[in-house]
Amino acid sequence: MPSLLDLALLKNFVICARAGSISLASQQVGRTQPALSMQMHRLEEFLGQRLMRRTGQGVRLTAAGEQLLAHAEALLAQHDEILADMNGTALKGSLSFGCPEDYSIAFLPALLNGFCALHPEVELRMICAPTFELRPMLRRRQIDMAMVSLADPENGAVIRKERFVWVADSEAPAILESSTLPLALSAPVTLDYRAACDAMDAVDRRYRVAYASNSLAGLIAIARSGHAISVLTRTAVPSDLSIVTEGLPPLPEIGIALEFADERPSSIVNAFADHIREVLPMLGEAALPFAGEGVEGLRHPL
Q1: Residue 212 near residue 205 (C-beta atoms within 8 A)
Q2: Residues 206-244: tens digit of each pLDDT
């Protein structure tokens, strides 16, 4: 039996831990599920500790597994930094990044173009999900960092501000005359839902959530139909819809910030975070391709 930890085994262990599933991890590492399971068994035998327990939803780390995960991530990050420093090359390694769909479409092309040009050896894995789903992924270390929405735009962590707007099929939609205004909103835990309801309650305007959708494409389709008014960030408004300002209360700004799985992120994570902090505030309003093809399945909640 070898007397040293195998870095390849540690890397695959980290991927399994983050994925929460041997099956999903096997797809990422290019091995069969039985082969990857055997590797995890070998690692457990070498350390003399049970690292993972199988559940109905996949695998869950034991206390020893959580302890090893922290050490393994730090060791692998240091390994990548040593190679980059000694070889005098650009950063090498992988980075998993989470982002809401509307931000990813509006901002990521410009962000990735610059970062990938500077660090072509970095492998970037993207996960698109709303903020309330990204935060548990960070806690479980399924992703390294995430772009999230904050209710307080003055928070010191905010990189860029975005304003919520009322959106309809025209600037003065006929449904504004309704005694009870029909709204199309996403999940009640999202910032846009709370912003809309709070704004209407503040002016005692009667409303009902007539349509609920966790799909950005769905909310846009309902607004286009003229049957309800929706709430989007200004960045996400497609060119064929109108922002309604007359007859409705103003909506608040929110902030965009970065959050991390680890208190001391790796050099790769820090490099991408620094790039986002530098570039994101300078990006102009993006024209999103929602008016044409490719809108199916987009997730909106922030």
Answers
A1: no
A2: 999 999 887 778 889 999 999 999 999 888 888 899 999
Over residues 2-60, the pLDDT tens digits come to 567 888 888 888 888 887 888 888 877 778 889 999 999 999 999 999 999 988 778 88
**Structural tokens at position 55:** 């559940």
Distance separating alpha carbons of residues 153 and 124, to the nearest angstrom: 28
User: How many other C-beta atoms lie within 10 A of the C-beta of residue 80?
Assistant: 19
Residues contacting 301, CB < 8 A, separation 6+: 100, 130, 131, 132, 186, 187, 189, 190, 192, 193, 214
What's the CA gap between 272 and 98, in Å, rounded? 12
Contact call for residues 208 and 201 (beta carbons, < 8 A):
no
Report residue 229 as tokens. Answer: 């008014």
Grouping H, G, I as helix, E, B as strand and the rest as coil, residue 128 is strand
Distance (Å) of CA 241 to CA 149, 217, 231, 298 = 23, 13, 12, 17
Q: Where are the alpha helices (DSSP H) in 128-266?
A: 131-139, 191-202, 216-225
User: Which uninterrupted H or E stretch holds 296?
Assistant: none
Rounded CA-CA distance 94/123 in Å is: 4
Contacts of 9 (CB under 8 A, 6+ apart): 39, 42, 43
Match 């990813």 to its residue by tokens.
Answer: 104
Among the residue ranges 76-90, 162-176, 205-219, 239-253, the one predicted with the least confidence is 76-90
Q: Which of 191, 187, 294 is nearest to 238 (CA)?
A: 294
